[in-house]
Write a structure and sequence with these properties.
Elements lengths: L1 E11 L15 E7 L2 E4 L4 E5 L6 E5 L5 E12 L13 E8 L7 E10 L8 E7 L1
Antiparallel strand pairs: 1-6, 2-3, 2-7, 4-5, 7-8, 8-9
């Protein structure tokens, strides 16, 4: 068995639906899972000055967030055959969430990438999308 590191670079998103009907823009973040490993991005925010005041306030980036973050996952090849895990051995799950202060975070969508033998996109393809 070979053990290595898979690096995932989370760049950004576009066209996200706005679930913050009362307070304006959404505050998106991404949860990335590979097997039993999980990482969360920072919440995408932009700093703006309101009414030319010196005090800065955080406002969500809305439907076009940028993260530019890198995450590392430990991988094994060939994948270990843990009971019930065979179908999940080379799947990367991404879930986009809207961070809310006073209520539960909202699910904005999710997708899954599967490892393939093809070389295009590093051998990964998007296989399931739910927006």
């Amino acid at each position: 068995m070979t053990i290595g590191i898979m690096e995932v670079v989370l760049m950004g998103a576009r066209g996200l639906k706005n679930t913050d009907h009362f307070f304006g823009k959404i505050d998106p973040y991404v949860v990335i899972q590979y097997k039993n490993q999980e990482h969360s991005s920072r919440t995408a925010r932009v700093l703006i000055s309101l009414l030319m005041s010196i005090k800065l306030n955080d406002i969500g980036q809305g439907s076009k967030p940028l993260w530019n973050e890198k995450f590392s996952f430990r991988v094994e090849y060939p994948a270990s055959k843990v009971l019930g895990e065979d179908n999940e051995k080379y799947k990367l799950f991404l879930q986009i969430m809207d961070s809310d202060t006073f209520t539960h975070d909202d699910d904005l969508g999710q997708t899954m990438y599967e490892k393939t033998d093809e070389q295009e996109y590093g051998g990964w393809k998007e296989s399931q999308v739910d927006y």
